[in-house]
Amino acid sequence: MKTLLKLSLVAILFMGLASCSSEDDTISSEGKAKLALRLTDAPGDYQAVYIDVKDVVIKYNGGQQDVTLGINSGIYNLLELTAGVNVLLYNDEIPAGEISQIRLVLGEENTLVVDGQTFPLQTPSAQQSGLKIQVHETLEPGILYEYLLDFDVDKSIVAQGNGGYSLKPVIRATTVAESGAISGKVLPANMLTMVSAINGDLEISSYTNLQGDFLLSGVPEGNYTVTIQADLGLGIPPLVVENVAVVKGEITHLGEINL
């Protein structure tokens, strides 16, 4: 398996990534937009989930034309992408124009760790054509578009009858400028704690880090019910915070939360 990149350096490294290319000059005739792609995680009940990210393909004009980006490829443990930590996959210019899809192309080294045992994750369709993330947006020249790709681990991994696992990815894409965030600190900090924000059918979750800090990113504007649940084995009842208001472009700070 390839060496894992140090996630703590993600925020400051890989800013000078390779520019994209296209076989058809028509999509670049409108000028260049700026694109940033970040990968984060909604948690799952596993010890580790390693995803082999190879390429990102942008679909233009209803899928008629493609642009493959020179991304920060690598093998990432999705369960480390919590409390505001994310992987910067791409930060550079791309042709302006109407895009319909972002496709995340995976390699073959996708694995899952359960009870100390490593299992391969079968992902045939993702390896061939990429994980399809619908976006449908017109990129204007000179404008920065920042997308957060939220990989829902719990919904994406399917247990098979033979004891193995398959990967059927569920990824939520949000534009950072068009969404907000919820942050806070859970005490005591030395325990595994899940934080979930719910509004109707929408649920956004993350774990706290070792210091007890959490950040729910890419949260659409609205009012949410936030639930803080410590490790069930500790016997601590969940804490529920009602009517947490999220405003576009802002971080809603919940402060210190004592369980």
Write the layout of secondary structure elements.
Blueprint: E1 21-22, E2 32-42, E3 48-60, E4 65-69, E5 74-77, E6 87-95, E7 97-106, E8 111-114, E9 117-122, H1 124-129, E10 131-139, E11 144-152, H2 153-156, E12 157-159, E13 165-167, E14 171-175, E15 180-187, E16 193-199, E17 202-207, E18 213-219, E19 222-230, E20 239-246, E21 251-258
What amount of the residues lies in strands?
Answer: over 45%
How many strands? 21
What number is the mean pLDDT?
81
Q: Whole-Å distance between the termini?
A: 39 Å
SSE class: mainly beta
Helices and strands, in order, run as EEEEEEEEEHEEHEEEEEEEEEE
Shape: globular
For this entry, what is the oligomeric state of its chains? single chain
Low-confidence stretches: 1-26
How would you sum up the major sheet?
10 strands, mixed
- Specify the helix fraction band: under 10%
Number of helices: 2
The total tally of domains equals 2
Description:
With 259 residues, this protein is mainly beta. It has 2 domains: 7-178, no CATH class; 180-258, Immunoglobulin-like, CATH 2.60.40.1120. The protein has helices at residues 124-129, 153-156; strands spanning 21-22, 32-42, 48-60, 65-69, 74-77, 87-95, 97-106, 111-114, 117-122, 131-139, 144-152, 157-159, 165-167, 171-175, 180-187, 193-199, 202-207, 213-219, 222-230, 239-246, 251-258. Strands 1, 3, 4, 5, 7, 8, 9, 10, 12 and 13 form a 10-stranded mixed β-sheet that branches. Strands 6-2-11-14 form a 4-stranded mixed β-sheet. A 4-stranded antiparallel β-sheet has the order 17-16-19-20, with no helix packed on it. Strand 12 (157-159) and strand 13 form a beta hairpin. The N and C termini lie far apart (39 Å). The model is unreliable at 1-26 (pLDDT under 50).
